[in-house]
């Protein structure tokens, strides 16, 4: 196992590479940098730098390969020479085209060539900006989802099926934001996977599990809402807690196969003694043909099919509400419409957030090339934007609950201000008076209690399903 340098400073990189390099080896540097570990992302086979020079950056088969192509253009095979050439500055390397000069790179000495490699691996300005953006994204998401879990867990009046499922979504989002986002961003910016092979497998397992949990939870929410609106008097045929446990078990089982194929692959240098942690990647070991089938299957099963099913339930629920508008009260109708609206917005956020990732995965698997030659800034944007969209879904859900649910707004404010419970205690003398009154009524009319009990049970049977629709 390689031990990574502690910093990304230019001198540290140079020292790391020089420590195992000899001037007698002066061949091409080859390797695969910048592995993309977003949910469902596959990895393409490594391309040698020499091949990338011949085909230029247009030979890249994916956004992940774009990053390799840019590095490959700048690191062709140097010939043995004693000529010393000035190492380009960070500003100069911003344009990949200016480094497509093989004669220039061949003229580099071994020392300058190593400095050139180290200088290229330094994060660009656009990458540093995205580091800040992802940090803010993680901070907002962790705070928002933690508030959702805290608010629902402390208030039993909010323990409805809808809120428990939403809390389950928040838990899966917290899992991704805390354990997956930071190492993934570090991997992208440094173009190196610094962690162990076990952590590589665990990280992808958690990412895939979270996505499966989100999809299955959204489907359960839509089914539960549809059942409550279409058959409000029917007895619920499931327990929410048991369903949530089953969701996690199924998601975990579905997430096991892909991490088993993962492994760490250090960057391969033609200079045999040049070994370094820089460029190490975490990728699957299966074939390109299987990768194409796998990505298509995941997109259809985990994205297109759930969206069609949930959309069908939402349309049918809207039709039922429109049909029963005259049979139920205005307030009840408004509460149900608000519940459906929240479900629609949650599903839209999921669809918009994960669509770029699925499109990127398909482009990666089928080697869809860009029409024009991009520069390094475009490469970075095309790599970071799909990742930003996928992680943003973990941030927007708590914001959506705050805007659309009055109960969540009250509890969010109460949690932020460290307020007390929502239930206000009655005055002591009122409690004693009510207690005495009820006791006297029970003594004088023994049948009254049973009659009232039956009346309450009948009313609760009729209204329990209605209440579950609006109590979110």
From TrEMBL:
Gene Ontology molecular functions: G protein-coupled receptor activity
Domain G-protein coupled receptors family 1 profile: 144-401
Membrane association type: Multi-pass membrane protein
SUPFAM superfamilies: Family A G protein-coupled receptor-like (SSF81321)
GO CC list: plasma membrane
Keyword line: G-protein coupled receptor, Membrane, Receptor, Transducer, Transmembrane, Transmembrane helix
Pfam families named among the record's database cross-references: 7tm_1 (PF00001)
Biased composition annotated in UniProt, kind: Low complexity: 13-24, 447-457
Signal peptide: none
Segments passing through the bilayer: 128-152, 164-185, 205-223, 243-265, 300-321, 342-368, 388-404
Ranges annotated as biased composition (Polar residues): 432-446
Highest taxon above the source species: Eukaryota
UniProt protein name: 7 transmembrane receptor (Rhodopsin family) domain-containing protein
């Amino acid at each position: 196992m390689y031990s990574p340098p502690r910093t990304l400073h230019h001198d540290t990189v140079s020292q790391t590479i020089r420590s195992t390099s000899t001037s007698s080896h002066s061949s091409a540097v080859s390797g695969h940098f910048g592995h993309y570990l977003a949910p469902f992302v596959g990895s393409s086979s490594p391309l040698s730098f020499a091949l990338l020079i011949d085909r230029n950056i247009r030979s890249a088969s994916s956004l992940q390969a774009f990053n390799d192509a840019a590095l490959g253009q700048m690191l062709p095979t140097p010939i043995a020479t004693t000529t010393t050439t000035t190492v380009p500055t960070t500003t100069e390397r911003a344009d990949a085209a200016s480094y497509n000069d093989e004669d220039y790179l061949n003229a580099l000495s071994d020392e300058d060539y190593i400095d050139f490699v180290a200088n290229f691996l330094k994060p660009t300005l656009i990458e540093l900006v995205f580091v800040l953006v992802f940090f803010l994204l993680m901070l907002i998401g962790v705070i928002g989802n933690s508030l959702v879990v805290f608010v629902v867990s402390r208030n039993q009046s909010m323990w409805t099926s809808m809120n428990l499922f939403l809390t389950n979504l928040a838990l899966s989002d917290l899992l991704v934001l805390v354990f997956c986002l930071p190492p993934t961003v570090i991997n992208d910016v440094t173009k190196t996977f610094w962690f162990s092979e076990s952590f590589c497998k665990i990280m992808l397992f958690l990412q895939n599990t979270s996505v499966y949990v989100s999809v299955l939870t959204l489907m359960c929410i839509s089914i539960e809402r549809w059942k409550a609106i279409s058959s409000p008097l029917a007895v619920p045929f499931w327990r929410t807690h048991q369903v949530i446990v089953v969701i996690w078990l199924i998601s975990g089982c579905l997430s096991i196969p892909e991490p088993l194929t993962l492994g760490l692959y250090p960057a391969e240098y033609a200079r045999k003694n040049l070994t370094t942690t820089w460029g190490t990647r975490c990728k699957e070991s299966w074939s390109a043909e299987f990768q194409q089938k796998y990505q298509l299957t995941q997109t259809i099963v985990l994205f297109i099919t759930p969206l069609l099913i949930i959309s069908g339930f939402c349309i049918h629920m809207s039709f039922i509400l429109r049909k029963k508008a005259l049979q139920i009260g205005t307030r009840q109708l408004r509460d149900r419409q608000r519940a459906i609206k929240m479900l629609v917005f949650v599903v839209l956020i999921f669809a918009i957030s994960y669509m770029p990732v699925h499109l990127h995965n398909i482009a990666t698997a089928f080697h869809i090339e860009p029409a024009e030659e991009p520069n390094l800034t475009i490469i970075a944007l095309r790599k970071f934007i799909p990742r930003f969209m996928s992680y943003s879904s973990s941030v927007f859900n708590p914001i959506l609950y705050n805007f659309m649910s009055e109960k969540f707004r009250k509890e969010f404010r109460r949690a932020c201000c460290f307020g007390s419970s929502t239930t206000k205690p009655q005055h002591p003398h009122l409690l004693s008076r009510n207690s005495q009154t009820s006791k006297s009524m029970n003594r004088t009319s023994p049948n009254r209690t049973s009659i009232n009990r039956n009346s309450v049970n009948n009313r609760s049977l009729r209204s329990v399903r209605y209440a579950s629709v609006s109590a979110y």
